[in-house]
Amino acid sequence: MIHRKLFSTSVLIILIPLLSIQYLNAQSRTTDSILKSVDERIISEHLELLTEFLSIPNDANYPEQIEQNLQWLANRFEELDFETGILKTQALPLFFAEKRIDENLPTILFYMHFDGQPVDSSKWDQENPYDPVIKMKSGNNWVEVDNVDIESLDDDWRIFARSASDDKGPIAMFLSAMQVLQAKGLKSKFNIKVILDSMEEKGSPVLASAVADHKEVLASDYLVVFDGPMHDSGLPTLLYGVRGITRMRIEIYGPSKPQHSGHFGNYAPNPVFRAAELLATMKDEEGKVIIPGFYDGIILDKNAKEIMSAVPDDEKGIQQRAGFAQPEKVGENYQESIQYPSLSVLGIQSGWVDSKTRTIVPDKVIVEMDIRTVPESDSNRLIELVKKHIESQGFTILDHTPDEAEMLTIAKPIYFQANPLMFSFRTPIDSEIGNWLREAVYEAHQKEIVQIRISGGSVPLSFFINELDIPAVLVPLVNPDNNQHSPNENLRLGNYFDGIRTIVSILNHPIRE
Questions:
Q1: Is-contact 52 159, C-beta < 8 A?
Q2: Which of 34, 59, 215, 389 could form a disulfide with 291 if both were Cys (CB 3.0 to 4.6 A apart)?
Q3: Could you tell me where in the chain the CATH 3.40.630.10 domains are found?
Q4: Using CA atoms, how far apart are residues 27 and 512, in angstroms rounded to an integer?
């Protein structure tokens, strides 16, 4: 039963100094006393809030959908005595809410996003992805639960809907946690600011300028992010950094237009082979990037390796789920592999295939790539290294599609474009924000905390960190098998109520500076 699990504890695994343990035990009783008010009526209200929110379409390609969500958010936050507003941007607006407690207390800025990936209803196992459905596992299938009864709720049931996990679920958890405090007549132990992104799934293209434009409004001491899945172990998770991302596009040319492979095979340069040859010079057989200087500055000392080795990754399980037999050898394990910048081919396009195959020498190859950066690797420096490497292979780099004259005079023309989209960051685990969140999350669950030094993915947080000069930590709350961005996205009900508990504990936990 979910409402019973809210009060469950387990043996202490994580090592925390004795003084901190005594402090946490005292705080834990306070959190438990708060959550004893979570009766069946409140649980029902939490579920209603979540399903109501998920029922509002949220594709940022349709501004009217974003507007509907903004209005819903304003109503819900104002019911909790927040001051709310809209932060205008060059595109869709951002949602902002604030609750002042005491000017002498620190201020925490919470970031989440309420937009979602587009949906293709034909790929979902329900009629409408915006009509939330609670399902239970039956064999290898998920089947709808008839007549959902609060008494019989099961942790492992799922609510299926777009954005259930990414990222409306955590927003609903936050609102429910605030409701719990309000019902007990309690206030958070710090001032609260909330910013909710409306275009995260489109890469947050205007977030940087918006943060700069509204710097005074957003000024805070710490940034906490509720986004992303917990560790595969299901243990409470804290994530102290993310990699950045730079997108690259190259176009390699052969003849100016496709030519007959019989007449021009062995004569006209084939851009597919040229692309294959170029890409093969960028990585070795073990998957390591061999562009000179690409890994410069990356040093994993004893402390870093201890942090990574403590993460309970199931390496074989990771490989099995992803469907490959042997990993690349950039790092000694999964955690080490994401401490380095990566170079990936995202897609290649040229000619025609299958029933449309034509016997031609293609005119060009398009290669989409990305670089995932880490704090030690500057995006622009890596872009320049890639460009220098391409030139060393005899190519002439152009910032435009070659015209007829250039096609006749340049032996190996290549179009190159690169755009840094998000930047990396890493907050020290033993920082003030790290210590505070570690204590609060342990207080909530009395379980080992998985501490991840840096994530392989990218989140648009560096704009806040650099512009506001504040540290950040992510607190993932949703189940890792949630199908985010894909059909049949879901949120495990146990994660939903555990997430409420986590946020109640964070809100109720004082920051010791």
A1: no
A2: 389
A3: 2-242+424-507
A4: 13
